[in-house]
Amino acid sequence: MAVGKSAELNLSAIPGIRIGTASAGIRQNVRDDIVLFELADTTRVAAVFTKNKFCAAPVTLARQHLADARPNYLLINSGNANAGLGTQGLLAAQQCCEALAERVNSKTANILPFSTGVIGEPLPVNKVISALQAAVDDLDTEHWPKAATGIMTTDTRVKGCSRSLELDGATITLTGIAKGSGMIRPDMATMLSYVATDMPISQPVLQSMLNKAVNVSFNRITVDGDTSTNDALILMATGVVDTPEIESEGDSRYAEFLNVLSELCQFLAEAIVRDGEGATKLIKVEINGAASAEDAEKVAYTVAHSPLVKTAFFASDPNWGRILAAIGRAKAQQLNVDQVSIYLADVCIVKAGMRAADYTEAQGQHVMQQDEITVRIELAQGVFSTTVLTCDLSYDYVKINAEYRS
Amino acid sequence: MAVGKSAELNLSAIPGIRIGTASAGIRQNVRDDIVLFELADTTRVAAVFTKNKFCAAPVTLARQHLADARPNYLLINSGNANAGLGTQGLLAAQQCCEALAERVNSKTANILPFSTGVIGEPLPVNKVISALQAAVDDLDTEHWPKAATGIMTTDTRVKGCSRSLELDGATITLTGIAKGSGMIRPDMATMLSYVATDMPISQPVLQSMLNKAVNVSFNRITVDGDTSTNDALILMATGVVDTPEIESEGDSRYAEFLNVLSELCQFLAEAIVRDGEGATKLIKVEINGAASAEDAEKVAYTVAHSPLVKTAFFASDPNWGRILAAIGRAKAQQLNVDQVSIYLADVCIVKAGMRAADYTEAQGQHVMQQDEITVRIELAQGVFSTTVLTCDLSYDYVKINAEYRS
Fold first, then answer.
1. How close, in Å, is residue B52 to chain A by CA atoms?
2. Which position among A99, A213, A231, B391 has the lowest Cβ density within 10 Å, counted as fewest Cβ atoms?
3. Contact at 8 Å (CB) between B379 and B299?
4. Strand order in B34-39's β-sheet?
């Protein structure tokens, strides 16, 4: 199940990026589970990773390699997270990078490893290594759609999008892909996402842009509140376009580029929630008038994580009492219950902390029948706002997570 | 559904407490939904209420009345929470108290009101008032089982227990009842619980005992993480037994009494989790070796609330990767992932942050087949421990909360 129409995947190539995929048969033999990115030497790379303290071995190693050298290759496998395996996991990630380095005549530190899939099972290193040559032979600028498929696990849809913009007469392209469906409550990053552009951008500026874009996109979604051990988002700027590099936030093109980057990240983040495990509805929880950014987030996530609220959405039941109870327990520093208003789309259901006088159940039910619903909560305590995307809690969520080992 | 055998309800009368029940037909006409407690004049009362800022009207009024006078009556209705209704709700609770005060020749401030049931629908005051005389006529010391039934909502089992102890030659009795099944994550109290004893205990000492007992019982359970708007726990000491009053914590009988009180509260709290909505398993999450009490709680509740962990328990799947991921995202101040060990009952599944060398999936599955499972997490960072009780997340949880308005 997934919410809304599946968008067509028109992904533009990014000059300076080639992609190859192959099948290593990590969990099944039918589809490609190895994805290899090759980056032009001019490419600058920025990254954000999970804040889960039990981070996976490839996350630890990728962080090290990023600190040591400029990446030339990204090596990704799906089907196995290589997490929860201690030094054995680190060794496995290291061996994969070494084998690739040998084949492509690179240094191990120039390779960033990524894994996604089941936690706690040893990564079948030999299978991965056996598939490397096929992935290298497959390298091509047009393979973004194959990459978007190759990184999937419990996803039911491929997720990707492209954008372009004009900056001082130069045409700039951005393309990104992502995967993720369960264990989604990114904290600095998402499951796995790779975004590239041909714009020349210095590394510090690229990292600052990425941090800002993530903060309004991947860090504002939740499916189940469970932050993954493997989250990673990589932003690559190949610099192939013949235009001056963006070297500081003072550059007039900075804001324009960041704007499009943020939009692209928001598209990918929303695609993950639309494909949330068992999701039948996309819920936008919008908080206005909070006394602080922290208060806005606390209220937003408490509502977005409440199993009672989420099952009510699944049932199309405008059960505002559950929303109100979630707001009340959110531990906001400043909350006056008599000033809270709640809207379902444009229908005011709670005014001044109680059922709105002219609200009828029929109005609420009309909104709840929609696939995509905005819950707007007005706290009237200050000027801070936030929006969090989530989905409902359905029978299929239980089924997916009870029947399959993830 | 509920976990474990249903215990027989042998509830001892408490001299000084009489109970009457009646049917007001608030939601259905078939069963009693009004419960009235009459307390002897000598009774001291201690109370804890929900910390949800959207607390229900009866909670607000009960707090006021407790501050103003010594309670003689508790008036409880099930089927309607009288919450989310602003001043209209307060007026309704006030009217019920006034009507009862008139009938029993008491003052309004001597009556504590309680409600539980659906949020946001106006309390049918006239129905409640019409049933008052029948409840008064029904007053009897032996009616504890009827009270335990009368306060139920989505509960599938009645919950109550009695204990007795000898203190300096005097035989002391304690009896308590509770209700609760969903919207359970008490924060200072539980849905509704009433505990009484015939022991003479001064009010400040009674309150201190209650706070301590709640902290090791009702404040250590969660079904769905949703703190209710109506939680209340009332402890009554009628003082009918002819023995000196406990007037300070220095009294040698203080610890003995508190011990039995805590045990009784733990029994009731556990009964609520066993009857958690859709529950098929009782899960005890035990944290040892935390660097602080806060860290222990953060880890315990993050594991206990994780939908991925809870669905794995429902599926009897020893999916330790999900437990490990939950520990890692719990935001404990001090956590060294390489020192974490996890046990399912006596089976060590994770040692030093990774799958235990001699662990086999068969061992894990054997434990997961049980109805009642202890997950023990050793953090090896300090000396703080805590235990939280929760249940699994099943299809029936979604069904109960999607199909019924709560």
1. 5
2. A99
3. yes
4. B17-22, B34-39, B73-80, B111-118
The answer, yes or no, to whether residue B192 has pLDDT greater than 70, is yes
Instruction: Report yes or no: A343 and A353 within 8 Å, Cβ to Cβ.
Output: no
**Residues B160, A10: Cα–Cα separation, whole Å:** 63
Which regions of A217-308 does DSSP assign to beta strands (E)? 232-237, 282-290
> Which residue is listed with tokens 């996976």?
A56
CB B200 within 8 A of CB B243: yes
Q: In what order do the strands lie in the sheet containing A111-118? A: A17-22, A34-39, A73-80, A111-118
Query: Sorting pLDDT into bands at 50, 70 and 90, what band is B3?
Result: confident
CA proximity to B372, closest of B395, B389, B387, B386? B389
Q: Does residue A390 register a pLDDT over 90?
A: yes
**Which of B1, B49, B52, B54 is best to mutate for the A interface (most A CBs within 10 A)?**
B54
Residue of A nearest to B329 (CA): A52
User: In this predicted structure, what is the pLDDT of residue B118?
Assistant: 83
Structure tokens at A282: 């996309």
Backbone angles phi, psi at A175, to 5 degrees: -135, 140
CB proximity list for B28: less than 8 A, separation 6 or greater: B79
Angle between helices A86-104 and A57-68 (to 10 degrees): 50
**What is the token pair recorded at A342?**
């709640």
Is the pLDDT at B181 greater than 90, yes or no?
no
CA–CA gap between residue B86 and residue A130 (Å, rounded): 68
Terminal-to-terminal C-alpha distance of chain A: 17
Cα(B336)–Cα(B253) distance, integer angstroms = 43
Chain A residues close to B223, C-beta within 8 Å: none
What topology is assigned to B282-403 in CATH?
Ubiquitin-like (UB roll) (3.10.20)
Separation in Å, CA A13 to CA A128, A142, A242: 26, 5, 17
CATH topology of domain A17-274: L-amino peptidase D-ALA esterase/amidase (3.60.70)
pTM: 0.83
Domain boundaries, chain B: 17-274, 282-403
Q: How far apart are CA A364 and CA A355, in angstroms?
A: 12
Which pLDDT score, from 0 to 100, does residue A370 have?
93
What CA–CA distance (Å, rounded) separates B176 from A300? 37
Average pLDDT over every residue of A145-166: 91
* Neighbouring-strand partners of residue B326: none
CB B2 within 8 A of CB B156: yes
pLDDT higher than 90, residue A94: yes
pLDDT per residue over B98-123, tens digit each?
A: 999 999 999 999 999 999 988 888 99
Question: Cβ of B328 and A225 within 8 Å?
Answer: no
Q: Is the ipTM of this complex over 0.85?
A: no
Helix axes B395-403, A307-314, angle to 10 degrees: 70
Q: How do B232-237 and B192-197 pair as beta strands? A: parallel
Instruction: Return the residue in A85, A316, A329, A381 with the most chain B beta carbons within 10 A, the one to mutate for interface testing.
Output: A329
